[in-house]
Amino acid sequence: MKYNLLALLLLSVSIMSSCDDNTDDLGSSLIDNMDHLEIKVDTFEISGVKSIAADSVLSRSTVGYLGKVRDPETGAYITSDFTTQFHSLENYEFPDKKEVLAASKDKRIEADSCEIRLYYNNYYGDSLATMKVSANELSTPMSEGKNYYSNYNPSELLRKTDRLTSSKVFTLKDLTDESSSSNNYMPSIRIRLDKKYTDKNGKTYKNFGTYIMQKYYEDSTLFKNAYTFIHNVVPGFNIRTESGLGSMAYISITQLLVYYKMHTTFDKDTTINGNDVTIKKDTIVNVSSSFAGTEEVVQQTRVQNDKVTLSKLIEDNTCAYLKTPAGIFTEMTLPVDEVMSGHERDTLNTAKIVLTRLNNRIQSKYVLGIPKTLLIIPKGEIYSFFEKRKIADYKTSFLAAFDSNKNTYTFNNISSLIKYLYTNKSSLGKEWNKVVIIPVTATYNTTSSTQELVKIEHDMSMSSTRIVGGENNPNGKVVMSVIYSKFK
Question: Are 158 and 138 a contacting pair, CB within 8 Å?
């Protein structure tokens, strides 16, 4: 502690002295200033550490979550699905119509097949659990300017009549796929769209891929960018969990693939009458065109939590919970008045909070993960922080990472948050001194010399933990350690 205080004093004095070019008296002034600097250390109990329902969160994520699982420790069920659009590259082009094989009797362009592929490189649960999902065509696209929360109703977006729907029964581990042993292999779920398809105008096509190709050859300008493609050709699909229990796939890439045949000409070296010659040879090849779900288009995850079980967890006043996705946050009432009382003219140098995690009550290979990063913000910003795409500014919002060695999360210095709440309590409303702890995913841009925080989103993965807190907490107090300083 003495070394930390000395470092703090030296830093503060060096900052003050940096404004003066005259350093002749630096040694004596440093000693004099330290003699006149009064340091005080104190601790305050934090009350009102309790679980609160997240209800719903802004589900803006590049990963789609698909499946249904049960938390082995709490018994809570989590079901998740997602809605996605597909991106068309600028001025996308199919091959020249003359090169595409016209398979039908009337020589119309037709696709051999079409599918949605859901690629995942991570998952939670049992890879051999049998699951069933479906792809359901949207009637209208999701709005680019609308905030979709994790409890949104995708049925409002679905096409009401003649909707294309296709289902797939699968296990995450495909024992029949020999390519799964390859180093470059990325597992996927394949949903075929090969049934006859009727568009909104009543026109019927061999399959969904044929519909896409014929729309292109009728008017290629519909494919000039993602917006025209989404609003005129493919609004998107809701990928829904229909049945099964035991696995949750983290879908990182979604593709809409159209397979068809085309003519091609290539040079072939051969020998004719003893002479080496090159001839032109025609052949038919299988090709595919791809439209991907990317960050440039909207993708939203819907979460259905077991509200009865979550309510029981929230009522447990012997601890506080952090549970994702869209499950439980932790609320705290900070002792702002107590911290500032009698110290209005002092400098509040540090205010530190350590949250201690409680170990799991059961042992299971499928126990949910531990939240890796926590965000602390004023309770009044629980929605606006994410809607405005804010990041932790370390003034009124702070991040803490899980320390596995100490089993803790530490907010090292939230003194500016304390001062903000104290100064603005008249405008912050009746809950002016309450903050909320939220599990998040933080994204950084990292170079050789810097690491810049660029994005914070709600943690939508499967995680759960208990921390010390609750009205009847048997594990000790939750406290805030503060350091003041003032000149005598």
Answer: yes
Cis amide linkage into residue 325, ω under 30° from 0: yes
Tell me: the pLDDT tens digits for 431-467? 999 999 999 999 999 887 888 999 999 999 999 999 9
DSSP string, 243-254: EE-SEEEEEEEE
What are the phi and psi torsion angles at 298 (to 5°)?
-80, 135
Query: 43 with 480: CB under 8 angstroms?
Result: yes
Residue 388 exposed, middle or buried by CB count within 10 Å (0-12, 13-18, 19+): exposed
The DSSP code sequence of 105-127 is TT-----SEEEEEEEEEEEEE-T
Is 204 within 8 Å of 197 (Cβ atoms)?
Answer: yes
Q: Are 83 and 154 in contact (CB under 8 A)?
A: yes
Are the C-beta atoms of residues 262 and 100 closer than 8 Å to each other? yes
Contact 431, 380 (CB under 8 A): yes
Cα pseudo-dihedral 196, 198, 204, 208, rounded to 10 = -50
Contact 204, 110 (CB under 8 A): no
- pLDDT bracket for residue 172 (50, 70, 90): very high
| β-bridge pairing 479-487 and 37-45 | antiparallel
Position 266 scores a pLDDT of 59
Encode pLDDT of 283-294 as tens digits. Answer: 788 889 999 887
Q: Which two tokens stand for residue 182?
A: 């390859």
> How many other C-beta atoms lie within 10 A of the C-beta of residue 357?
20
Strand boundaries in 294-433, DSSP class E: 299-305, 320-324, 328-333, 347-358, 373-378, 398-403, 408-411
**In this structure, how many other beta carbons lie within 10 angstroms of the beta carbon of residue 103?**
15
Question: If we measure between CA atoms, which residue out of 150, 56, 76, 68 comes closest to residue 312?
Answer: 76
**Distance, CA of 299 to CA of 158 (rounded, Å):** 15
d(CA 12, CA 36): 13
First-last CA distance in the chain: 21
Give the pair of three-digit tokens for residue 487: 């000149």
Return the closest-CA partner of residue 190 out of 212, 211, 166.
Answer: 166
SS3 416: helix
Which residues, 6 or more positions from 236, have their beta carbon under 8 angstroms from its beta carbon?
83, 84, 85, 86, 138, 141, 142, 157, 230, 298
